[in-house]
Amino acid sequence: MAPTVSAERQDMGGIAYIHLDSKQALVTCGASGTILFFQEDQTEIKRVEASCALNCLAASPKGDVFVVGDSQYVKAYKLPSGEFSSVATRFNLPVRAVAFSPSGSTLAAAGDDDTIKVINLANEKVIRAVRTTPYTRGLAYDPDSTFLASAAADGHLQVWDIATGKPVLSRKRSTPKIDVASPGRCGLAWHPDGGSLLAVAGTENDILCLERLSWDEAFVLKGPHTGPVNIIAFSPNGLYMASAGRDKKVVVWDLTTKALVCEQLGEEPLTALVWRPEGNCLAGLTETGAPSCWREPVPSHKPSPSAALDTLDLAAPIRGRSTGDEPDGEDGASPENSMDDFIEDDVNGDFTSGVAGNKASAASFNQVRGCLPQPQGPLQPGSTPRGGPGSRRWLVYTLLGCISSTEAEGFNAVEVTFHDTSRSRKRIPILNDFYRFHLASLSDKGALYASNASPDSPAMVVYRPFEAWAPNSDWSLPLPEGESPVAVAAARSLLALATSTQTLRLFSPAGTQTNVISWAGPVVAVAAQEHLLAVIASEAVALSPGARLTWLGFTPDGMLATFDSQGVLRLRTPDFGGGWMPAFDSAAEQKNKETFWPVAVTQQALSCVICREHTPVPTVTPRPTMSRIALHVPVLGAAEATGPVEDQQLLLSATLSHVREAAGRSAGCAGEGGGAAESDVVQAETEADKPLLRLFQAALKANRLLRAYELATRLHLMRSLEGSLKLANHHQVPALAERITAVIDARLALEAAEMALAEEAAPSTPPGQSADEDDAEVVVEGHASSPGHRLAAEGPPHSHRVPLSTSTTNTFLSRHPNGESVSNAAAKKASTSGPTAGNPFAKRPAGNPVNPFARASKSQKL
């Protein structure tokens, strides 16, 4: 006998697979108040009549009980008998969602009340009750039993830490709004691979997949649905996802390729949807309480949705390559998979057609890397996530200023604000953005915007200068069909746009396209400052284990800096072929689990917005307050007296290496190197010597003479060496003083040899021109040939890419001065030549005494 269901009115219900007599069976409930049990051959087993409408149902993973929620109670029924067992808990208003923990020992329940309860079914006690937004329409238990996700009818998405009862994620207007009087649900589901992803229904008829812990958007599934998504269900092995929407469509997605497998259009929306644990079948329940079955939703040429992953050869599909066996259509959709397979009131599906298998474990899933999640999605530094209609967000927030966007009907209102109001002589007017820009970057000269394609316009890139002496200085360009922007960066002399086709497009501020580069992999982020451009591709930077890049920028001196999702800041140094120095760890600075949202970084401090645990990104209103936190390299023995000094010394040493590298690039591009670069090097050497001298004095006091001597040899300036010699004499350590004197003698002899070589190689001064005149000319050229001046004088530059690291081929610096960037090979050769090179104990030449305390000349100081 086939089960019959009353179709009196549209309302909520539930469906689940259960085991009865070692066979798969289905149990359903709905507005009629009837609980139906039936076998796969359409034979009704039994029915249980309830006294009121039943809104939701969940079966325990243990297979010994299932629960239903009605107008006030959560009731438990035994399996396989179907007898009423107990009332698990009580609410004041109807229960709308129930979810079992993976172990089946606890149950989460919520509904129109403002409370979510976690119940221990063994003793029917509430072990956790948390206050939340009323009218909960979705619950999902994390497979690791760590988190519980909930979604309310007003679009409020929350993820709760079950152990503490506190939310680790709280985002308003993140899911579709639902009329509380309707039977609509908020789709929620965790990926079975340990909950690596949380899938939620989006506000644009799409599905957002959020990464666990960081809660960043990993990817979006969008296309077939024309109405809000009601239900989301992952296949048992996590290779597929099924979604049902208010548009009456049921869609199956291939998560390996993020592509549509097939879709079906039903007679009415579904209120429940579940995969068969073993086999290839989807079972659903309509809002009128009619069960439905879709046999073989996944085509036979694809892996089964229930097969164990370690038994499948997924190498090619996981990387998105075609197998060559797929039929025509959207990723395997075929005419045979028509609506005829989705039969109302028919549960006689072909359950034996799939490949039987067990639910894959996390270990087996990790063997097929590349499936979920993707290594890293695009990142726009300084931006905050998009909210719902009418919400405000930061398109970009930097130390210079910020750009905010407010959603309105038909357009966005974009406002540019500088922290220092004196930068702009007049207020920058609010921009009515009809393209709905989602990316922006700010420089002191203008703002670069980008938008995705819409039904009314293609994807666009737009630049608006703040103050231009010529009319029509702003410009906009459409992107080709199928190409969308993923990251933008703006600086005084260059603009960069990275797109979804792995293309990097460079522009001048006037709109001239200066270069188009095809990148080797997907671009993650770009950052620009003055004449420098950094492009980060997948796996191109050092990150904490399991972390993702969350911010990218430059220090004022041009050092590249990154910040990851574990709260670690790193600075790139030229040492060791381009290494990354950890300079800040938020775990050591956190209080009450707040988060640090980076804005800018210097060589000494991180400028950031400290956000509370429940709001991990700053709000537009009220305006966030920036804090400065000192950088700290994680040195060993930091608690000792010299620990902070060693920390400071490492930071200043990294800065010196960068300044020297920048000076070498300037010398190679400008021909002679400017006085400004020399002054920067001397200043950096002076700062780097200060902590070295402090460490030197501490070593003397501790009677660690070998360490003191080693520190003295690392001093950069002659006056610093002289200071160390005075300290050695003051502490009456003649053996150390003698060795430092030998180092000073070797340094002076080396510089004398270098000066002699320079005089021999220098051309003679032309007749009629004095040496002073030539020196003055060099200073003028050095000033005029700085990157910014040369670009302004000579027009659009040629791009030159310099690898950031010999071991990392996906990260590049782009410079815009004329000429190639060359190494400082000549200086290195000079420093390793000569009779006393590299030997601090070399004997001084006879008849040429040197006074180590004589005032050093300018060349000696360098």
Automatic annotation (TrEMBL):
Biased composition (Acidic residues): 325-348
Protein's cellular compartments: Nucleus
Molecular function per GO: chromatin binding
GO CC list: nuclear replication fork
WDHD1/CFT4 second beta-propeller domain location: 378-537
GO biological process, one term: DNA repair
Any one Pfam family match given in the protein's UniProt record, by short name: Ctf4_C
Annotated WD repeat ranges: 95-129, 139-170, 222-263
Coiled coil (UniProt feature): none
Record's keyword annotation contains Nucleus: yes
Stretches the record annotates as Disordered: 318-354, 369-390, 781-862
Keywords: Nucleus, Repeat, WD repeat
Extent of Low complexity compositional bias: 372-384
Domain WDHD1 first WD40 per the UniProt entry, residue ranges: 21-289
Segments forming domain WDHD1/CFT4 helical bundle: 670-748
Compositionally biased intervals (Polar residues): 804-813, 820-836
PANTHER family according to UniProt: WD REPEAT AND HMG-BOX DNA BINDING PROTEIN, WD REPEAT AND HMG-BOX DNA-BINDING PROTEIN 1
Name this protein carries in UniProt: Minichromosome loss protein Mcl1 middle region domain-containing protein
